[in-house]
Every structure is written in structure tokens, then in C-alpha cells.
Amino acid sequence: MATLPLYEHIKNLFKNTEFVSGDGDFLVGKICEAIEKLDKNLIALLLKDTKTKEHFFVSVEDAFALDQNKLFDFFNSREYFDSSYTSYTNKIGLIRKDSFIKKFNDVVLAWPYKDCVLEGGMSSEDKGKNEVFYNSIISKDEIDRLFEPKVLVNIKKYTKEGESTPEEITMDDNLIIKGNNLLALHSLKKRYAGKIKLIYIDPPYNTGNDGFKYNDRFNHSTWLTFMKNRLEVARGLLKNDGVIFVSIDDNEQAYLKLLMDEVFGRENFVANFVWKKRSGTNDSVNFSSIDHEYVLSYSKSESFKFLGIRKHFSNYKNPNNDPKGAWTSGDLTCNKTAAERPNLYYDITDPATGVTYKCNPNRVWRTIESKMLDLIEQDKIIFPKDTVGTPQYKRHLSEVRSDFKPVSTWIEPEGKSNSDIENEQDIFNITTLKSSLNQQATKEIRDFFDGQKVFDYPKPLNLIRSFLEQATEEQDIILDFHAGSGTTAHAVLDINKEDGGNRKFILVEQMDYIETVTTERVKKVIEKNGEGSFVYAELKTINKFKNEDSIGKLNQNMQYLPIGEIDDKDYGISEAEKKLNKQFYGIA
User: All domains of the chain, ordered by start, with CATH?
Assistant: First the structure.
């Protein structure tokens, strides 16, 4: 038997693995990422085969080491492939092999420093920062130290009665943590991994004027690395049926979608919600007015479902013994004019009486004429008995597929009339979320701070409420690690007051305004509602050094004290704080 060329041999070897498409073609982007990460499945596959073992491994005494460069060269060779691999170090884009791409999973988003960690240690919006990217392989020790849980200090509890020092921090406590959000997320892992039901974040949009001022030379790449690092650890905090919502605008929405496909799995994409943020126009060079933003949503698994709004069936009756069973009537018109929708402007005739019903030019029919004739033939249209009034649509109970109305991805501006929204919900069996405009969100905060503008670009309270009401129940935990002005906590406290729930929130914010805006707003909401509490804590910053070696470690690992060094006397951690930290982290 003739020996197969290496290319064909490897193609057969990879058959029915994650590295080929359903058509048997190499998923080159995925393979190159696996080589970069020294993926165990890939190495095992190549190592167990004699031919690939001899070709791609170097024998060192009794062990074998993978020759990554040789394997990369093979999959980048023009002898086998039409185009070269786009490496992380020179371009931002989709890695693909045009001659082999058949499915989406052969497309991988790549950018400089994708395989790195960026701490993102800025504490004030007016201060830019150039930071080191830690390579996940070369700088493994530095990254491990960076991600160690950090010591919590300045721990206080706030209730409607005022401030006190807690004796312990329980799972029933709301938390507000000041410090780097990446390190805070890693500090929360042991206690909260797999326990968060909903995450909402409003991260910097990387627009140039939103406070994201890191490494200007690679600003876009920096933003992607910044987001990837945080989304990866956030996913591990979610419950199996948990969900994340991320606010974003057009500037990075497309890239964020691909990044979240990679982190959460494309199959776990929930929705891309669209909401109107302003009523006026936003002038642009090409005369388009960008007045909408997005909220991308992903679940941890396919078990997540929105709660929806429960449908009411008491209005379904069967007064005429309809063989299809109980039914109810619904509006057959829509809020459009004849000028806007001429194809929906026509007359209909009752076949039983011959009476013709004129279409209202200011509120046309909801469906085209051919579909309307089919509905009439199917006895789905109810004509007025006295020939006065407007025909109605007949909806049978047997046609209802769920007890709940699904959630629409279009979020209605609060200014739209409730009657129009309720009518559309009834006709289309959907749940329509509502949100205020940005100007209302600014007013909501000003009302707590004597009319002063203390925060730029807050999100509307009812935007976040909409997601909480549709995705959480009374005992769930909600996390916001870009806490900003504290809107998420405000929403949680208000919903709990209304339904008697015990939802908990965790806020993380590294900017200095956490003390003057975020916590102050939450305190004022607690005072207003007459209930609620939270524990405030800060990640311990290191501001004194024992020797030059310590200074070097600080430069590499930033400013926070690992929990493993809590007993070091040089850092001055009080016995009370040591006790709280050990209780919080479960240290004996």
C-alpha cells in the first residue's frame, strides 16, 4: 500500500475530532490556537500516531517535546494551503483559511496580545496608563500571583441606621468592593463560583472619550484583551442557568459579539437588545443619527430562559361552541397609516352578510390582503353582528404554545404609550421591555445629589430593572463589576422592596468616585426605601516595601496584597480584618 502524504495522513488522523469541519476540512484557525495554547487534546492526538510523533516531536531521553514551530509551519505552508495564518502579533481580524472555510467555527477573532493579561489598574478617569501585557505562557508565575485572592480592608456595613463594623460577611450580604475589577473577580471566585444568576456590566466603550485610556498605541487590541480577561473569569462565576448582559455601542459591538461567541459559546448567544438612548439627533459626518445602543446577552448554558410575562387565559370563552375550542378576540389593526403601509390599506367583506368594512387610513390592517382572505376562510375573523364597528381577530386557546410571552429584543422608549405597547404584546404574544432615555438616567442621579451632575453617561434605572425582572428570582445574586454610579444596586433594592424578594448584589468599581457617587447613591436608596444594607470593602493596596525585591514585585503585580501575606506584620492588617478575611475566604 502506498504511503499517504503527510497532509492526507493528518487529515485522516483528525477525522471526527474538534479540529475538522463536518465536511472533513481542517479548522485551521482553531488548530493554530490549539498549538499556541499547547492544547492537551491536540498533543495527545499527534503523540499517539507514529508518523506525526516522529515528524513533530523531539525526543529528549525518555520524553517527547512538541516542536511548535514545525507544527505551525506545516499549517501555514503554502504547499498545503492557499493563504497564510494571520498571527496575533500583527493584525486584528478574523483568522481564516479561504480554501477550507465551511462553517463559522473556522473563524477565530485575533488581535495583538490576545494571549496576554492586562490588569487595567486605572483609578481615575483623567489619568491614562501604560501597562505591561503579561503573556499567559511566559509570565505564568506573575499571572498566578496577580490572580491570588486579595486582602480586604476598610470593611464597613451600612444599613438605614448608619455605619458599623460587621462581625462576619455572609452570603446574605450585599457587597460593594473598591479595587481593580479583574483582581476582584478572581478574589470572588472561591466564594461565588457557579452562584451568580445575572451579571450586568456597562464597560468603557473605547470611543476615545469614555475613560478607557490604556496603551494608546494598541487601543483597540488593549480593549479586547481587557474585556476577554474579565469575561473569562465572569463566566466561571455564573450559575449553570446564569446570564450576562453587556452594554455596548456601534464602536465595538461587532468585535464584542465575536469575542463573546468565543468565551461563552456561539450556541449560548441569547439576544442583542436594542434600546433608544436619546430623543434628539446625533450629528455625524455622513448625516446618520446614531441614537441607539445595544445590550449583548449570553447564557452560561442553554438551560437559561427568560421568565417572560405569564399570559392570562380567563378571557378565552366559547360562546358559539366553536369546534376549535375557547377563543378570544384581538385587535386586527396596527399603528400605521395608509401612507406608511399602502399594502395594508384595503377593504374586507363579511362573506356571511356581504357587508364591506372600510379600512381606517390612520390605522390600517395588521396583515396583507391575501393573508386576510385566508384568515376569513379559516373562520379566524370575527365580524360585528350589527355591522357597526371593526372586525376582530380570533385567537384560539389551543394555538397558545406557551404560558409565557417571550421577550422582544427591541426595548421600547418609555415615551411610547402603554396602550400601544400592550396592544402589540397582545397581538404578537411578546413581552416588550421598556427603558428611559439617557437624559432621564442623569436626572435620576441628580435627584439624589441636590441637582448636581456627578456622573457622566449613566444607564437608565428601568433598563437594568427590565433585565432583572425577566431573568432573576427572589433569592438570586446579581453582579456588576463596572458598577459606575450604582444603578444596578439601585434596581435590585427597588425590586426587592416591591416584591419582597431577597436578591443580593455585588458591585465592583476601581474608580475613585466609588466613594463619592456609587456608595452614596446606594445609601440614599436604602434611606428612601427604609430597608436594605451592604458591606463595603477595599482591596488592600501595598504602599510600603520591605526591600528592593518587593518594589520589583509591585511593579510587576501592581498594588494589591495577596491573602497569603495577610499575616505579614509589615502590612499592618488588624486582627479584626484578618478574622473577616479568613472567614470570607474560608481560611482556617
Answer: 6-87 (no CATH), 116-243+438-585 (3.40.50), 312-399 (no CATH)
